[in-house]
Amino acid sequence: MKKYYITTAIDYPNGLPHIGHAYEKVFADIVARYRRLRGEEVYFLTGVDQHGQKMQQTAEAEGVNVATLAKRNTRKFLALWEKLGVEFDGWAETTSDLHKACVQRILSDLHDQGQLYKKAYRGYYSVRQEQYLTEKDRDDAGNFGPEWGEVVELEEDNWYFKLSEHAAWLREAVSSGAFGIRPEFRKAEVLNALERAGDTDLCISRPKERLHWGIEIPFDPDYVTYVWFDALINYISFAGYRKEDGAPLPDFDGLWPADAQLIGKDILVPAHAIYWPCMLHAIGIPDDRMPTLLVHGWWNIRGEKMSKSLGNVVDPDQLADRFGVDALRYYLVRDIHTGKDSDFDLERLVMLFNTELANDLGNLLNRSLNMTKRFLAATIEDTPHDDEECAALRSSLEAATAAYRAAMDACDLPHALEAINSHVVHCNGFAERNKPWELAKDEAARPRLAAVLNHLCESCAHLSVLLAPVLPAAAAKIQGQLRADHLATLSLDDLRWGLLPSGHTTGKPKPVFPRIEVEEVA
Ligand code: MSP
User: Fold this and answer.
1) Is there a contact between 47 and 28 (Cβ–Cβ < 8 Å)?
2) Using a 6 Å cutoff on CB, does residue 51 contact ligand 1?
3) Total number of domains in the chain
4) Which atom of ligand 1 is nearest to the CA of 263?
5) Would you say residue 447 lies in a domain?
6) From 28-37, 300-309, 397-406, the region with the lowest mean pLDDT
7) For residue 307, which of 164, 215, 374, 510 sits 20 to 30 Å off, Cα-Cα?
8) Quick one: what percent of the chain has pLDDT higher than 70?
9) Distance (Å) from CA 9 to ligand 1 centroid
């Protein structure tokens, strides 16, 4: 069976990780855990993009060795992923020997095939974007806009990849869907960009006299590889492409193509939607083995892009300490519609946690376990339950599970969470209407009491399984309190009524989602 292969963009460890980075890694972690829950074998790759001029400049400015800077900051990213429960299978560091060797093999292959050539360049260069500029990059007033940062004039020889030879193929591959881009509206954006791009080739080298921090061009040691050409290759180098015998890497044929390459909208064009598929095409990857891009939007701060210079970068490490990992993971994927942008708002983080987790789900779990303990000696009893109320609860669970599955299959995480919450809300209403605390006063109503509490506890069992990809630690706590650790080993297809059999003993409730007090938000 082919593994489900999910990757994220690899982050520049040129500073601290921010919530944009955290969103993407948590998102991928949730999809990876969900695919496992579906019973699939999964390989989740993420990592850091350690080369390039930005890293070299920061190191020079801070007076540290660039390798030391890359290592030091990489550790911060790794520590954050561990803290946030992001569990990956492969870790891509582009300074690793196996990646360097793979990049060099690909460069040599392309060179041997006549896909690379050297030519002189004279013109403008954006230091910030590490990119050569053309007249087309000027704005209406004829200037290079602020997005390019410092622009310098250069004259130098460089190596070029014949990107233009693949342009016609790419248009067709994007239009036909052979090269997948999701959501659909991003595909139109790429097709537009292809119209405008014209047929230019890609400069893939930088002279060492200007940039030493990169992978040496194997057939021209005065040059290093352009950082994007190096970084994009991580998706295949760490997936076992052209690996050396015995290298500790997956089997490329059983893994490739990537089912979902999760990236932000800013790096779709040109890097992921133009350079990357053309590189794959040039090295001979056939159309039916092209990857699929999954493009997410941006977390902004009050409508503005987060940036170091604006000083509005939100530190996920501090947020996790302050509000807990569950609140942060939940908010990051709950309050942004996949593909769109959203405003990061601490009040909404607290409100969503307090409403949907503390009040709704936490309350449901707490009351279900409490009453089962008090009224039924903590024992599930399977009594007849064919009345309308119970049937409606079971339909609600079925509908919520189906909606959750459809949304998760489409990587639409907010709708999956809404589906979970809809059943939680139904259950709390069911408890209010059926009043087990009243039923408990009447011996004759005992079968009914048992049926009502069974429906509530059984719902908690199902909900814990559905929630597990998003909040793995909380799901484990819920399962512990239900005394049903076996739930952690179930797959989605095992979800049917009766997860807690008659005679099952439940445990003691303990708040899984303690309310966040509003005074804490400042
Ligand atoms: N190193 C390149 C990617 C190379 S992939 C072969 C890069 N790194 S980055 O650190 O700038 O960004 C990493 C990822 O974080 C990108 O997918 C980017 O879109 C995403 N985000 C950066 N800021 C973001 C937000 N404010 N919100 C959501 N995601 C954002 O680009």
Assistant:
1) no
2) no
3) 1
4) 17
5) yes
6) 300-309
7) 215
8) 99
9) 6
Cβ count within 10 A of residue 500:
24
Residue 11 and residue 50 in contact, taking contact as beta carbons nearer than 8 Å: no
Type of residue numbered 243 = K
Q: Is residue 454 part of a domain?
A: yes
* Residue showing tokens 């030091």: 72
Asked whether residue 428 is domain-assigned, the answer is yes
Domain holding 358, by residue range, is: 345-521
Mean per-residue pLDDT, 338-354 = 93
Give the C-alpha separation, 181 to 434, whole Å.
Answer: 48
278 CB-contact burial (10 Å; exposed 0-12 / middle 13-18 / buried 19+) = buried
- pLDDT tens-digit profile of 223-250? 999 999 999 999 999 999 999 999 999 9
Answer yes or no: is the C-beta of 229 below 6 A from any ligand 1 atom: no
pLDDT of residue 333: 97
Residue 12, pLDDT > 80, answer yes
**In Å, how far are 12, 46, 385 from 131, measured between CA atoms?**
16, 24, 67
Ligand 1 centroid to Cα of residue 287, in Å, is 27
The CATH number of the domain where 454 resides is what? Answer: 1.10.730.10
| pTM exceeding 0.90 | yes
Rg (CA), the chain: 27
Residue carrying the six token digits 């193929």 = 169
The pLDDT of residue 436 is above 70: yes
Residue 512 CA, ligand 1 centroid: distance in Å = 32
